[in-house]
Specification:
Elements: E1 5-16, E2 19-30, E3 34-38, H1 45-53, E4 60-65, E5 68-69, E6 80-83, H2 95-105, H3 110-123, H4 140-152, E7 158-162, H5 170-187, E8 190-194, H6 198-204, E9 207-212, E10 215-220, H7 222-227, H8 232-237, E11 242-251, E12 255-259, E13 263-265, E14 269-271, E15 282-288, E16 294-296, E17 304-315, E18 319-325, E19 331-337, E20 349-354, E21 360-363, H9 366-370
Parallel strand pairs: 3-8, 3-9, 6-7, 7-8
Antiparallel strand pairs: 1-2, 1-4, 4-5, 9-10, 11-12, 11-15, 12-14, 13-17, 15-21, 16-20, 17-18, 17-20, 18-19
């Protein structure tokens, strides 16, 4: 992928009366990237997508596509295309007419349109006989492919996706997620994708932008967002996690020393790289993901362990999830690979172990996790 910026969003703000939907969002997207915008309802992700598309104007800030400032450029003249949650296919038009509509608006020759429609149908794995049908005669997944074909036929530089898979059932969604990934890889168009589905963002995106309250809290690769979150909110929003209270005693250039009454640790030190850059002496949270915990069977040499009591169990087929609580009342979630014999039972007291490379220290700011 070329390291060339195609979309540059600089300090974009948007107000609606007294309400501030965007509070100075900045984001740079490289050509060919797949970037996902995630966050709770009302965080501003769809508002940001509308600013990029030109359906709304920012109150302040700058949006540039391929170096060109988009201020005053109408949506119809931007090198973008958008796929909405509600597909908005024309019910009175055939599939072929729906797909070719953007080219018809631009006055292209009918033979060229027919050729391009066939190419897009093939790319989207739509059978040739579907082209003469109407949208109502197709399944939800097939309609989704038609909407994608229509958005791609005019060769946009940026494809903007506003939760296009959210209304589909789980099995079909999985199929179309794979198709979306294949499409992105095959055509090389830059995707900016709004989704509530965190697993979808982790699966599809090259980078994820986590938003809350009109702000971009963290932008990074899925693995970095998941295992090295910026704060407690990001840690808790991107999947299940455990945040155990600790007290940071000393922050040095190479190591961090901490204390925790419920955690058994061989030396209560961590490499400095396993803590947030802003870590400071005082209350902190030790983060460890559920799948990185293990139920300790005797002394297996784990450098860190904690005692818990199992309070709930969930069979998930390929995995087993246990919810537990420490003697001090802190909740803990552990997830182990599925097996025919469960390693713990409801009400059982066990020890959980982890290795130091799998944990991360966050500064304790309770308001960040709830505001």
């Amino acid at each position: 992928r070329s390291a060339e910026t195609i979309l540059d969003i600089v300090d974009v703000k948007k107000t609606y009366g007294a309400s501030q939907a965007l509070k100075g969002v900045s984001l740079r997207v490289e050509r060919g990237e797949f970037v996902a915008l995630v966050g709770p309802s009302g965080c501003g992700k769809t508002t940001l997508l509308k600013q990029i598309a030109g359906f709304e104007d920012p109150s302040s800030g700058r949006i540039a596509i391929e170096g060109r400032d988009m201020a005053g450029v109408p949506a119809s003249e931007r090198p973008t295309s958008m796929v909405f949650q509600k597909l908005a296919l024309f019910p009175h038009m055939t599939v072929a007419q729906n797909i070719g509509f953007p080219l018809k608006l631009r006055g292209h020759d009918s033979s060229l349109i027919a050729t391009k429609v066939r190419e897009m149908a093939d790319l989207m794995h739509l059978k040739p006989e579907y082209l003469n049908r109407f949208p109502r005669q197709l399944s939800g997944g097939e309609q989704q492919r038609v909407a994608l074909a229509r958005s791609m036929i005019s060769a946009p530089k940026l494809l903007l996706l506003d939760e296009p898979l959210s209304a589909l059932d789980v099995k079909l969604k999985k199929v179309l997620q794979a198709e979306l990934k294949r499409l992105h890889r095959s055509v090389g168009v830059t995707f900016v994708h709004v989704t509530h589905d965190l697993e979808e963002a982790m699966m599809l995106a090259d980078r994820i932008c986590v938003m809350r309250g009109g702000e971009a809290l963290q932008v990074g690769r899925p693995n970095d967002i998941y295992y090295r979150p910026a704060d407690e909110f990001v840690a808790g929003f991107i999947g299940d996690t455990n945040l155990l209270p600790v007290l940071v005693m000393e922050v040095g250039a190479e190591i961090v020393r901490y204390r925790a009454p419920e955690i058994a640790d061989i030396d209560f030190t961590l490499p400095r790289a396993l803590a947030r850059p802003d870590i400071a002496p005082g209350p902190a949270k030790l983060m460890v993901r559920p799948e990185l915990l293990n139920i300790v069977d005797g002394n297996l040499g784990y450098p860190c362990t904690i005692a818990v009591e199992i309070t709930e169990t969930f069979g998930k087929g390929g995995a087993i999830q246990f919810r537990a609580v420490t003697p001090g009342g802190d909740p803990v979630v552990v997830e182990v690979p599925g097996t025919s014999h469960w390693p713990a039972r409801l009400g059982e007291k066990v020890r959980l172990g982890w290795i130091k490379q799998d944990i991360y220290l966050l500064q304790d700011r309770p308001h960040e996790a709830t505001r």
